[in-house]
Amino acid sequence: MRQLLPIAAEEVDLRSLYAFPTDRPWVRANMVASVDGSAVREGRSEGLSGAADKKVFGVLRGLCDAVLVGAGTARVEGYRGLKARATYAETRAALGQAPAPRLVVVSRRLELDPTSELFAGALRTVVVTHQSSNEGMRQRLSEVADVVVAGEDAVDLPAALDELIGLGLSRILCEGGPNLLADLAGSRRLDELCLTVSPLVVGGTGSRVLSGPGLDIDVPLRLAHLLEDDGVLLGRWVSA
Q: Is the pLDDT of residue 214 over 90?
């Protein structure tokens, strides 16, 4: 993997390039898309991923406190609770982090199975929902997860993020899906977007990296770096 911008380099230290700021909370998103803009291939983002994308994916997870994901994406992509990785033990200990990130699942309808692998991580999964969601289901899920209620009739994402930060989860990695990422950008809480562009055109009507209505605000970004590996482009854009 080589760096194209801002300075050309044939070798890169991914942990340094993707290190989170240490002086403030930071919300980073990581997504993959085809050259023609689709965020899925045959219904899943996995179809667009390759070795370079998976390598950066692993680094981003290894450095974060929490992985934030929508319930629909968690189901489609087969998410499981997160485990500690020995290769990041020293780095995480030096930063005062838990041995593994916490999985945070955002769900409006709470269509989650408390016996599923979503709740089998090294640390308790966090479920984010709203006050009007099914109270009985919230109680069931509270037996296997920490339930955060943010908002009355819909999830108040900024309030939920503040709750997560209050739990000590200040380095947050959002892995989508596209609707959740659109909400995140629209709420002005997206500090960084890591986007892998896979050298494929897939056509179809698959969702984009952000889906849903157009944003009511502009979200200007600046390019922090651009990497390349076997035709795959890996960009990192930060809030301007």
A: no
Which ranges of the chain does DSSP label H, i.e. alpha helix? Answer: 14-17, 51-63, 71-76, 89-94, 135-141, 157-166, 178-186
Q: Is residue 209 classed exposed, middle or buried when 0-12, 13-18 and 19+ CB atoms within 10 A define those classes?
A: buried
Residue ranges of domains in the chain: 25-36+46-210+219-239
Q: What is the average per-residue pLDDT within 161-190?
A: 95
The dihedral formed by the CA atoms of 15, 66, 114 and 150, expressed in degrees to the nearest 10: -160
Looking at domain 25-36+46-210+219-239, its CATH class is: alpha beta
Q: Do the beta carbons of residue 204 and residue 38 sit within 8 Å?
A: yes
Is pLDDT of 142 > 90? yes
Residue appearing with tokens 């983002």: 45
Token couple for 138: 């919230």
Mean per-residue pLDDT, 154-159: 97
- 163 CB-side CA count, 13 A: 20
CA distances from 200 to 109, 125, 191, 206 (A): 34, 34, 27, 14
Contact 33, 208 (CB under 8 A): yes
Query: Is residue 173 packed enough to be buried (19+ CB in 10 Å), middle (13-18) or exposed (0-12)?
Result: buried
User: What is the pLDDT at residue 217?
Assistant: 82
